[in-house]
Amino acid sequence: MSASISTHVLDTALGKPAAGVRVELARQRAVIASGETDVDGRIAELARDLDPGRYELMFWPPSAFFRRIELEIELEDGHSHVPLLFSPYGCASYRGS
To answer: What's the rounded Cα separation, in Å, for the pair 47 and 23?
Structure first.
């Protein structure tokens, strides 16, 4: 089997999706996929046909405090959705469905 990943970014301070946020997926620090969120703050398919394992998911939100937010994730067979919620001085993520 293989893994795939999607994401979306929400600006919780403004209460709306964050469009135009650069997102990169890397494995062992080598970028293997990248994109920018659409007007709904989404990247429906950042990458697919991935080998399961450890990856780095990096976001560059429009924030005066957070210059880059990096998550180290473990992808399993199947699809993973990893959202990012951020505000000027806080951020959170979770494994979505």
So the answer is: 11
Residue 17 forms beta bridges with which residues?
10
For residue 8, give the CATH number of its domain: 2.60.40.180
| Number of structural domains the chain divides into | 1
pLDDT at 77 over 90: yes
- Residues making up the chain, counted from first to last: 97
The model's pTM: 0.93
> What CA–CA distance (Å, rounded) separates 12 from 61?
12
- Residue 12, phi then psi, degrees to nearest 5: -75, -20
Summarised one tens digit per residue, pLDDT across range 54-70 is: 999 999 998 889 999 99
Which class for 49: exposed (0-12), middle (13-18), buried (19 or more C-beta within 10 A)? exposed
Domain range for residue 15? 3-93
